Known about the structure:
Elements: H1 25-37, H2 40-47, H3 60-73, H4 78-85, H5 89-95, H6 104-113, H7 116-132, E1 143-145, E2 151-164, E3 198-207, E4 213-220, H8 225-243, E5 250-254, E6 271-276, H9 285-291, E7 297-300, E8 307-318, E9 323-333, E10 343-345, E11 348-355, H10 364-372, H11 377-387, H12 398-422, E12 428-433, H13 439-445, E13 460-461, E14 476-477, E15 483-484, E16 490-498, E17 504-509, H14 512-515, H15 521-524, E18 536-541, E19 551-555, H16 560-570, E20 574-578, H17 595-600, H18 602-617, H19 633-636, E21 645-649, H20 689-709
Parallel strand pairs: 2-5, 5-6
Antiparallel strand pairs: 1-2, 1-19, 2-3, 3-4, 6-11, 7-8, 8-9, 9-11, 10-11, 12-19, 13-18, 14-15, 15-16, 16-17, 17-18, 20-21
Helix pairs in contact: 2-7, 3-12, 6-12, 7-12, 12-16, 18-20
Amino acid sequence: MSSIADGTVHIQTTSESLAAPPSWFGEVVLIAAYLHQHGVLTKISEQMRFARRRFGYYEVIDFLAVLFGYAISGERTLEAFYERLQPFAIPFMALFERDRLPSRSALSRFLAALTEAPVEALRTLFLDDLLARPLTLDKQTGGLVDRAGNAWVVFDIDGTREAARQRAFPQTDELPSSFRRLDDVCAPGYRGRKRGEVVRTRTTVSQAHSYQWLGSFGNRGNGRYREELRQGISAIGRYLTAHHLPLERTLLRLDGQYGNGAVLSDVAGFVFVTRGKDYRLLDHPLIQARLHLPPDQLQQRPESPMVRSLYDCPEIPVGPEGTPCRVVVATHPAGKKKSPVGVTRAGIVYELYFTNLPQQGFTARDVVELYLHRGAFEPALSDEDREQDPDRWCSHAAWGQECWQTVSQWVWNLRLELGHQLSPTPLRITEFAPAIPEQNAQAATRPAASASASGYGPPATATSWKTGRFTGQDFLLQPDGTLRCPAGSTLTLQERRQEADGSLRLVYAASLRSCRPCELREQCQWNGSATKKPRQVSVLLHPLVVGSAPLLWRDWSRRDHRRACMQLTRQQRIEVSLSPPVAASPLIADGILSRAHTRASRGYSGSLAMLALKLLDKSRSAYSAPRKAWPPRSGWRQLNPILTTDGLFLLGPARCSAGVPCPLFPAGLSFFLPSAGFALYPVALSASSALGSKREEWSDFRATSEQLSH
């Protein structure tokens, strides 16, 4: 056995149990005060209403306070959250101007009873709160600058899934059909790499530059992706209106499940980019003809050795309505394993990308890179799962789960907003794609077999070179990459030449055996029947006219501001203390009453007395903690019950970094926030507003009772 030799170190222990505040309690104080300052709690109480059921004395705000605390805490289960919160239930609810913490069973009944109307009202309040205040003082939103110098705002719409595991039940004729608790929220569907038998899909909408959530819309199984897309577009429209952003400069990056022609009508008016899944378009004559020409560009990711050949096909009719769309076809050789994306034909993997981005601002490679950049959306979902895990099962009812996920996204946005006030940083500018060199410089340094840096325009042929003779326009490009002459003969590709201006010349030639007996030889060849060579046609691919500027991506860090808010109070010591209840003074009548007088005054005053007892009885908490944690029953029936809660962040007072006046906490609480950015001057009040109102009601009752008795 070893001991410490230094006598200056003293360690004392005690058997008395003293609960330590959770590390997340300080952040709850910060966010609750911020919501109280902007009137969000009052709006929730007033606007989110529905038919009540077995909730006892609780209001909607009581349950929303628990969900806010649960999302902030990051505890894995509600049971663990309640265990940590149990010793501090009274000050926690006082932060939200409430005096009773709902039990877990009451919270479960509340979530199960929710309907569509209150959840939609909560979503509206969530979006209103997001749009009520700019993220930064200079009202920046981030953006994307294309090669022509135009600014765009990018939004990501993507789905995430949560699978649930279910036990196998015996199924016989004698047994009734099995009942699953998750039948209302889950259904069989695509699970991806997640283990389980049933799944729930929710569509999330994010601003790609600030990483703010704009909404979450979930459904059973694979979801209702078109309905959820329309809801997401509605939220984006409100964001654009609030920030005065043009609709035609808004880019939607959609998941591959939206890659069919039927969805294009839902995003009318917006600019979009998505992966296509309608591979029947590969058989379109225009696409087949383009695939037999040289590729516009080559694309390779830094982390992959695979090189894609890109073919830009503008104005391709897509969908049942034939909506014109820009289609980018990416091809690469097939490997030993089946490609998880695209379709394989003759050893070549074909991928489709649909967009309506202008060719003057975005090359084919820019379009593919923009779609693949959606991978930056996955780390945001990963951070959300690690910090809050909104996909965990908080309710077995669909609308209850939607309510929880909306609150979870609300907490994410509040952390971002507070983090920008704590540590404001300017927009960072990243070169998304390098600038395109001049055409003459391209032609001097690029090999003849390589693709253009900007891509090629539509194939062009020579104009009429002799009156009455066939021109290059009379030789039609075929889907198999050949040309067909007016007489029906085939011209095949013979030569490729790089021109000085960067153009690519493709030389096609017919067979001499086809030209000699041809009846149209006089109109086709220069010297008519005296010509000894077959007909040749040149097709020119001119470089596409694209702006030479680089693509610039402007955004903020995904984690820094949010983590600044989370770590502000979690590394500090927090003290929360409860004052003992004031001793009760017995109520003594002014004089001795006769039995007749008592019987005469029992009617109306007796009813008032019962009403007063009911009103005072409501002030008792229905929380399922041990009874010893509360004041005695007699203390709650007092004329003036007092609840005092004091807390202290031990770093001293300071001023707000942005110069914005900081809010005071609800009555009954006293806190300092640290000097890192936020600071609140202390305020100590002896009684909560809720209990103060009970005192006034009791005084009115006593006055009325004395008048009746006399």
